[in-house]
Amino acid sequence: MIYDFMRLILFFDLPVVSKEDRRIYATFRKYLIKNGYIMMQYSVYCKIFANREAAVKHVNVLQRNVPQKGQIRILLVTEKQYAKIEIIVGGKSNQEQVVNSDAFIKL
């Protein structure tokens, strides 16, 4: 079976002015990590899916679990498109190196 792996990239900017804002921010961040997202960089997380259908279903679940304040954007790209990302400074995190489509392919 051939899978068209998809990568969901989530960008967020949440307020952290009040103690309640910081609690909401931390809760959302923990939600992302618990649900398999990895941090690409500060406030940018991504998750890999076996196909577009699974990613779209996840977006529906995600929409029910986002904070009411701030800005949250998502970008859905194929794993092939994601692999073409250029890193200008720094490099891939250890987690990014381990979690890729190769980790899901059974030989």
UniProtKB/TrEMBL annotation:
Q: Which cofactor does it need?
A: Mg(2+)
Entry keyword annotation includes Transport? no
| Highest taxon of source | Bacteria
Which key words are in the record? Antiviral defense, Endonuclease, Hydrolase, Magnesium, Metal-binding, Nuclease
The EC number(s) this enzyme carries: 3.1.-.-
Q: Where does Mg(2+) bind?
A: D13
Q: Which SUPFAM superfamilies match?
A: TTP0101/SSO1404-like
Q: Which GO molecular function, any one, fits this protein according to its record?
A: metal ion binding
- Top class in the EC scheme: hydrolase
InterPro entries from the xrefs?
CRISPR_associated_Cas2, Virulence_VapD/CRISPR_Cas2
One of this protein's Pfam families, by short name? CRISPR_Cas2
GO terms for biological process, alphabetical = defense response to virus; maintenance of CRISPR repeat elements
Q: How does it assemble?
A: Homodimer, forms a heterotetramer with a Cas1 homodimer.
Family membership: Belongs to the CRISPR-associated endoribonuclease Cas2 protein family.
Q: What does this protein do?
A: CRISPR (clustered regularly interspaced short palindromic repeat), is an adaptive immune system that provides protection against mobile genetic elements (viruses, transposable elements and conjugative plasmids). CRISPR clusters contain sequences complementary to antecedent mobile elements and target invading nucleic acids. CRISPR clusters are transcribed and processed into CRISPR RNA (crRNA). Functions as a ssRNA-specific endoribonuclease. Involved in the integration of spacer DNA into the CRISPR cassette.
Under which name does UniProt file this protein?
Answer: CRISPR-associated endoribonuclease Cas2
- Biological source species: Holdemanella porci
Provide the gene name from the record: cas2
